[in-house]
Amino acid sequence: xxxxxxxxxxxxxxxxxxxxxxxxxxxxxxxxxxxxxxxxxxxxxxxxxxxxxxxxxxxxxxxxxxxxxxxxxxxxxxxxxxxxxxxxxxxxxxxxxxxxxxxxxxxxxxxxxxxxxxxxxxxxxxxxxxxxxxxxxxxxxxxxxxxxxxxxxxxxxxxxxxxxxxxxxxxxxxxxxxxxxxxxxxxxxxxxxxxxxxxxxxxxxxxxxxxxxxxxxxxxxxxxxxxxxxxxxxxxxxxxxxxxxxxxxxxxxxxxxxxxxxxxxxxxxxxxxxxxxxxxxxxxxxxxxxxxxxxxxxxxxxxxxxxxxxxxxxxxxxxxxxxxxxxxxxxxxxxxxxxxxxxxxxxxxxxxxxxxxxxxxxxxxxxxxxxxxxxxxxxxxxxxxxxxxxxxxxxxxxxxxxxxxxxxxxxxxxxxxxxxxxxxxxxxxxxxxxxxxxxxxxxxxxxxxxxxxxxxxxxxxxxxxxxxxxxxxxxxxxxxxxxxxxxxxxxxxxxxxxxxxxxxxxxxxxxxxxxxxxxxxxxxxxxxxxxxxxxxxxxxxxxxxxxxxxxxxxxxxxxxxxxxxxxxxxxxxx
Length: 574
Fold this sequence. Notes:
It comes from Cynoglossus semilaevis (Tongue sole). By secondary structure, this protein is mainly alpha-helical. It contains 13 helices and 16 strands.
């Protein structure tokens, strides 16, 4: 209890500000002044200051030293994020959040953001059919709706001019916004000249920020879907694939079957077969020294199981999960992909889940499924194109009794036969649940997270690229309950029974309550008619019985009288 209270107090102190480039800030004026402090429409003041929601202030970045993996300085807009673009943003008070302080922090709701609410992420296979359909429809809606709050950068800050005279931003749909973010955070650094790039850089992978960054990524993604649909009870489901004998989500009703016409494509019967991917041609971008501009680049590809077996010998097992969760150290040594006996490095998939040692050239755990999918999901920069990405990342967050975090699924025993087309989205969610399991098992203090000397972008105080509002890595090294969500399989048995069994049936009943009511009324009418007929028949039967008894008595009387007249007999004496 004391630990949770401390976490809640700490979370109240977290500053917020977002940078997938808020639309009001993506202007020449915003770039010239380097200020992103929009007016909140609720009271017409900057950052909602008149309502006490927040205020505009200087951005203070950490000066702690980075590791040696990136030897350059001043070459990349993501260095010391977000100073290349903005040095003043909104700082929100209390439980307020959003780039203009017009929203609530994760886990809070209400007009004054005073109501704590805990959402439960559930196994996609236990959802009612209507909920499964709704999830798929929400993904497709996000893919086809331009985001109203954010735009993406299609050029570097230098290309936009010293005073922002050439702003290079573009509209993007809500789903692809998050694909672009995943590309941008992991892209190579341009060093000048075609193909001259620095590849050993990634602000969200290969070091400590891997889990906190994807946790915020999924929370933000979930929040955008809620705003888009108006369904504020929406949560991204996870797929618990532990010891599964088949790929249960690989159906056209969910993430799409393999196309019978081309094994690299999605079945034409699935809505995902019409999706176009973006940000997948990173070699071309490097050669041209350009950023991905979110232009469609072809169909979604997936050919699970037909991967390089030398890179992925097998998919994770329940034993792998248990070993990983049992590792006590979050980070060790150089805190990169060559680290040994690190929970983060084993879970991410750069080290063995059998002995904890780094395995260069091989992919395990989280990375193994990316390679196994053998398609759009197999490239880091473009992996979020596949909706399986979300349920995969969701699982990384729930690590207290199995896998966490995903975007929500890595405790399943996998083999090429077991899962031939697992959507990345559900897979991501299950993996992050493993992170939650680890947090609850070891209860690490904040100082466990590296404060300095991690690869660039991964220190405790570094702001996550490319979010605006701003989020610090170390602020999200805490249990998911503080962030307002829980995984169904981590609930106590009573709560889990309600979530996994009772709630789905209640939701199914809610979907068809009109039919149930009509059936109930019709049943009542039929029962009433039947009861009336029974009563009438019963009364008629009783009348007939009385009539028969009456007639029978009349027939016997003369015999008694006759016997009496004739004198004594055996009958009359008896």
